[in-house]
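Case study 2.
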Amino acid sequence: MPAMRIANLADVPENGANRFVVNGKFVAVFRVGTDLYAIDDTCSHGQASLSQGELDTDTHCVACPAHSAIFDLRSGQARTLPAFKPVATYRVWVEDDGVLIEV
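Prediction:
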């Protein structure tokens, strides 16, 4: 799969997230310590932006800001209701201080 540079590492706050447009779709990139995770930014339950949700760095999960559904950043799986469908995940990494994502 081809890779695309979407940002500089500094654009993703440590223990935080930012939203990027990748091929016309919103993708949330989370930074937990030195690890990066990329998931669809839109909650599978509603239209809320997951990049705006509360990040739990211990469990590598994010809570949807609209209805508090929790998603695992590693798998995209919904861990709590009201969401039950997962969100897509993407391979993401740092190369020469750039954030690359597999598209």
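Residues 29 and 38 are 4 Å apart (CA to CA).
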